[in-house]
Design a protein that fits this description.
With 346 residues, this protein is an alpha+beta fold. It has helices at residues 5-16, 45-58, 68-84, 91-110, 153-157, 168-177, 199-207; strands spanning 23-27, 62-66, 116-117, 123-126, 132-135, 159-160, 212-216, 221-225, 245-247, 255-265, 273-279, 287-294, 299-308, 316-321, 324-335. The chain contains 7 helices and 15 strands. The radius of gyration is 21 Å and the shape is globular. 38% of the residues are buried. Residues 236-242 and 339-346 have low confidence and may be disordered.
Length: 346
């Protein structure tokens, strides 16, 4: 229970469905602050109190689990290291993989619980053979199946998403009917552990300055930067005109072939080669693709049916079969299959 409306209603629905429910708030910050910054940040004392009040209204036991050290090692340190290596990570996926459906699920099962229930907007459907499938949510504007694409079949077997068939407006209305004070609480957004939203400043504090050149695709020097980690592929603002940062035209960003590793299957896939849909960003549109899976190398190659722009190493490609999540992989390289020169635009 994060202290927000979604997890509160998810807990209430789990109780209504007849489950024995215990509310847990994850203390993930080493130095929790008393107040949030609008819709930014999480895991504050204020959030913990909101979660506790919701649990009291629902009528369930409530605990705070301190996972700050694990979160820092598996999510925050990974985030910084990925940027230092010139990649663009998504910490929400890493948190779901390493914290909520690994560390939390393991501890819950050790205590005798069957599953972790969250307020994510995604659906779990059970096949006739008992296997479970992860699908997109009914609300396309709130669908979070992308950030859950890192879950494997065992983790999915221990997951519950009671909000998957609901619209966000319905969830807020239900929270109000249930007397939950968080009914109108703003949703969190951006990177939860960077409360002020200044990702570049956050990284600069940890990585220091690393001056370099800003060049265009012909090699002409246009300016200087203080750290390539402050930029990503597709960025248009803040250039101030590793490791030079290379700039170019929008057309030079287009790629139609993606290589990816750290493959995690959420369910059955098509074997060595299969057609699928692939989503390359949390809020990106899926595109048709041909996937070729090298099981021995643990890698997947994706040939896109339409070119995509601004795709950066470190981002996650989530593969779909219709609405079903097939699996995910971390992008390691992109290229153009056509004869045009490869772009390094940033």
């Amino acid at each position: 229970m994060s202290g927000g409306v979604d997890s509160a209603v998810a807990a209430a629905r789990a109780v209504a469905a007849g489950h024995e429910v215990t509310g847990v708030h994850l203390a993930l910050s080493r130095n929790p602050q008393s107040f949030r910054t609008g819709a930014r940040g999480c895991c504050t004392i204020e959030d913990s109190r909101d979660a506790r009040r919701a649990a009291d209204v629902i009528g369930i036991p409530f605990y705070v689990w301190d996972m700050a050290e694990r979160f820092h090692a598996d999510v925050v340190d990974d985030f910084v290291a990925e940027y230092a290596a010139g990649r663009t990570p998504n910490p929400c996926l890493r948190c779901n993989e390493k914290i909520k459906f690994a560390a939390v699920l393991d501890k819950a099962r050790a205590l005798g619980f069957d599953a972790v229930c969250t307020g994510h907007y995604a659906r779990i459907l059970e096949r006739s053979d008992g296997a479970r499938e992860l699908h997109r949510a009914a609300d396309p504007d709130k669908d979070q199946s992308y950030v859950l694409g890192v879950l494997d079949a065992e983790q999915l077997a221990g997951a519950m998403f009671p909000l998957g068939d609901s619209l966000k407006a319905e969830v807020r209305a239900e929270a109000e009917r249930r007397g939950l004070a968080v009914a109108d609480k703003p949703d969190s957004h951006d990177v939860c552990f960077i409360a002020d939203g200044d990702t570049r400043g956050f990284l600069a504090e940890r990585l220091g300055t690393a001056p370099g050149r800003i060049v265009d695709s012909s090699g002409a020097v246009l300016g200087e930067h203080q750290g390539a980690y402050g930029y990503t592929i597709g960025q248009r603002k803040g250039l101030r005109i590793g490791d030079p940062v290379t700039v170019g035209t929008a057309e030079e960003l287009a790629v139609d072939a993606v290589e990816a590793g750290h493959v995690r299957w959420c369910g059955p896939h098509g074997g060595a080669a299969f057609d699928c849909l692939v989503q390359l960003r949390a809020h990106g549109e899926p595109v048709a693709a041909r996937a070729e899976y090298d099981e021995r190398a643990g890698r997947v190659s994706l040939s896109l049916g339409a070119s995509a722009r601004g795709i950066a190493p470190g981002q996650t490609a989530v593969l779909y079969d219709g609405t079903r999540v097939v699996g995910s992989a971390t992008i390691t390289a992109t290229r153009r299959a056509a004869a045009l020169p490869a772009a390094e635009a940033a």
